[in-house]
Amino acid sequence: MTAVRATAGRPRVLAVRAALVGLVALLLGACAQVVPGTAVPDAAVSAPPGLEVFYGQDLAWGPCAPFAATEEDRQIYADPALQCARMQVPLDYAQPQGRTASIAVLRHAAPPSPERIGSLMINPGGPGASGIQTAAYLATSLTQTDVGRRFDVVGFDPRGVGESEPTIRCLEGPERDADRRDDDTDASSAGVTQTEAEEQQTVGLCAQRTGTDVLAGVGTRDVARDMDVLRAALGDEQLTYLGYSYGTRIGSTYAEQFPRNVRAMVLDGALDPDQDPTAELIEQGRGFQGAFDAFARDCTSRSDCPLGRDPAQTTRVYQELTRPLISAPLPLPDGRVLSYSDAQQGTINALYVEA
């Protein structure tokens, strides 16, 4: 398997749903480990000076249909139990009177009950995964669980992502298809130089189409501050949070910035904050290979396994099936093609779900 950064999608949502079942006791019992911060903010609920208008805003809840980006989204978001709103936050917290960002928020409210605890805020990671999509999928399966009965399930699209505005814009339409066809499999010096040049070009397009002022304001610390505004707007004195993958970095950053405002956190698949991106990708690749090997052992025990019957040969067989796509992408009925990177990404997304 080749290490490829995974993207959001239903497989990841299903993995989050499965793992959440085992985390109920932690969330209900408020077992939180707070990461010490270098600065201690004001007590819970109080708004930092100059941000009162944001912390005190009332969210105007309504139907979620305007947030649907796909037909599948439209079907899920049609559930009348789901409510959506937009939350305003400063694009630059150092200049709260300046330009604002609009954060897309979705919730599934718990039924009225004296046992209701508050909101459970969820982020599935990515970075770039949709929190509203994840919350919508999860909420439909949690209604009859202790979590669904005692928490409003809340998701948000981090600034720059999904239905939040402004959105990061880099590659569009045919450019994205062309990027998908470029598999970056040439590890020679010339190949690496070419890849670096292409990445620099993409960064330039991001800056040109999104604006450097927006890009400067979409960091993890900004997202963590948005979470505290959302906590207050939801009426919660403290945050209950569930984060996966990159969502664990958001959670730990929040705990550093707002230690008094944490009720409980579950950080699953935590990222090492001291690990450089290259080492992170290598470790991620090992994890995907391990998941693939586990899948292969199960697959080869079945008579219809397309990877054969020998677990030791499955990676080789998989590569024999997919590597021809490097030079000859598979034409699709809609006129697009299935590239090698598409095949890798589809496989990796599936590896998030236990077979």
TrEMBL record:
Quick one: where's region Disordered?
A: 162-202
Under the heading Gene3D superfamilies, the entry gives: alpha/beta hydrolase
What InterPro entries does UniProt report for this protein, alphabetically?
A: AB_hydrolase_1, AB_hydrolase_fold, Serine_prot/Carboxylest_S33
Report keywords, A-Z: Hydrolase, Signal
Composition-biased stretches, type Polar residues, lie in: 191-202
So which domain of life are we looking at? Bacteria
Q: Bias category Basic and acidic residues: which stretches?
A: 172-183
Q: Which residues form the AB hydrolase-1 domain?
A: 120-340
Gene Ontology molecular function terms on file: hydrolase activity
- What start and end residues bound the annotated signal peptide? none
* Family indicated by similarity: Belongs to the peptidase S33 family.
The name this protein carries in UniProt is: AB hydrolase-1 domain-containing protein
Species, as recorded: uncultured Actinomycetospora sp
